[in-house]
Amino acid sequence: MLISVINTSKHPLPEYQTAHAAGMDVRANLTEPVTLKPLQRALVPTGLFLEIPVGYEMQVRPRSGLAYKHGIGLVNSPGTIDADYRGELKVLLVNLSDQEFVVQDGERIAQLVVARHETVAWQPVEVLSDTARGAGGYGSTGVQ
Ligand SMILES: O=c1ccn([C@H]2C[C@H](O)[C@@H](COP(=O)(O)OP(=O)(O)OP(=O)(O)O)O2)c(=O)[nH]1
Fold first, then answer.
1. Which end of the chain is more exposed for a tag (fewer CB within 10 A), N or C?
2. What's the ipTM?
3. What pTM did the predictor assign?
4. Pocket of ligand 1, candidates 85, 112, 113, 114: which has the most ligand atoms within 8 Å of its Cβ, to mutate?
């Protein structure tokens, strides 16, 4: 699919690293590095402005390498980019490690997955259909 994009960053557009990857790695666009102390968060700019087709959303997801090696995640994982959003795409990083982490300009900080979504209209009713599960949840079938 095609997504219209304005790239005000000094970096290449997000790209798939392998032929069948689901996520495109997106880069930080910084004038100076951002230091994240343990448990600190930061809204990191990308310099990208998108027009996602109606009926689709973009999910901003963590990169497992950054998570595993440095404890870097997303506060709002996954972030949701709406089709009608015209502002700058930003990434809400959090440092979940016990050591400082420095985000460098151009660093691949997250990945972007585009997905179709439905738009719901509610149908209020008095009764829902019976199922074997009923109201069971939260481990009702066992936890192993
Ligand atoms: O990680 C994110 C999450 C959101 N956004 C942008 C795009 C999205 O369309 C908009 C609103 O996001 P969301 O709906 O998650 O925010 P909200 O807290 O519900 O705020 P709002 O009242 O503005 O919808 O902010 C980002 O750039 N990065």
1. C
2. 0.98
3. 0.95
4. 85
Q: How far is CA 2 from CA 9, 15, 126, in A?
A: 20, 13, 43
Residue with CA nearest ligand 1 atom 1:
79
Based on the number of CB atoms within 10 Å of its own CB, is 134 exposed (0-12), middle (13-18) or buried (19 or more)?
exposed
Q: Which helix (H) or strand (E) holds 114?
A: strand 108-116
3-state secondary structure 66-113: HHHHHCEEECCCCEEECCCCCCEEEEEEEECCCCCEEECCCCEEEEEE
Average pLDDT rounded to a whole number, residues 78-94: 98
Q: Would you state the pLDDT for residue 43?
A: 98
Q: For residues 138 and 144, what is the distance between their CA atoms, to the nearest angstrom?
A: 12
pLDDT tens digit sequence for 24-62:
999 999 999 999 999 999 999 999 999 999 999 999 999
DSSP single-letter state for residue 65? H
Which of 48, 52, 82 gets mutated to test ligand 1 (max ligand atoms within 8 A of its CB)? Answer: 82
